[in-house]
Specification:
The protein has seven helices and seven strands, in the order βββββαβααβαααα. It is of the alpha/beta class. It has a single domain, classed as 2-Layer Sandwich (Nucleotidyltransferase, domain 5), CATH 3.30.420.10. The strands form two sheets. It has a five-stranded mixed beta sheet with strand order 5-2-1-6-7, with helices on both faces. It has a two-stranded antiparallel sheet with strand order 3-4. The longest helix is centred in the first third of the chain and has 16 residues. The radius of gyration is 16 Å and the shape is globular.
Length: 185
């Protein structure tokens, strides 16, 4: 089983996944699991081609998604009442992010129970991108702060928070998650 987390964008998509998870009566096991993360710069011009390019990156980098068993965790856009929120909504950015999430789920024909949509507030609370980045660097033990794309950081932290909430803690996942603060819903 694979869990793929996507921080959606039409320009730079953050992603993180853990692949090879097994669930049985004893809980979750990840002895043979693989963990990867990063971001994709989307080069296409139109939204239609951008969406197709994103799914091609998922196939190339993560091996695609099996519609029967894999889970998709995506940040679902939320409207924020303020100047930035108004501008973003007016320019169509909010709806485009929802389109990325929906296109991925539809492309891989994922059943509804395998799709997990979380707003930023649901997975990280009301902290800024910079605080999320600082948590990431501290938990991952990475020193070169500004060389890692913020979309990749968000995807990793969203995946780890999701796994912690679902009690998915094997050797690979729990080693990274141990220090991530528990976020109450």
């Amino acid at each position: 089983m694979k869990i793929l987390a996507i921080d959606p964008s039409v320009n730079e998509v953050g992603w993180a996944y853990v692949d090879g998870l097994v669930h049985d009566d004893d809980g979750w096991h990840d002895e043979d699991a693989d963990w990867k993360w990063g971001h994709w710069k989307i080069a296409s011009n139109s939204l239609t081609f951008k969406l197709k390019e994103i799914t091609e990156w998922i196939i190339l980098e993560a091996g695609g998604l099996d519609h029967e068993e894999d889970w998709l965790v995506c940040e679902w856009p939320a409207y924020f009442d303020g100047m930035k929120g108004h501008v973003s909504a007016k320019m169509g950015h909010t709806i485009n992010l929802a389109a990325v999430d929906a296109y991925i789920a539809g492309y891989f024909r994922l059943p509804w129970q395998n799709i997990h949509l979380l707003t930023a507030t649901e997975w990280k609370g009301n902290v800024s991108k910079e605080i999320t980045r600082m948590r990431f660097f501290r938990h991952m033990g990475i020193k070169q702060i500004y060389k890692i794309n913020h979309n990749a950081v968000d995807a990793v932290m969203m995946l780890l928070t999701f796994c912690k909430r679902k009690n998915i803690t094997g050797q690979i996942v729990s080693k990274i998650m141990e220090e991530i603060p528990h976020l109450e819903r």
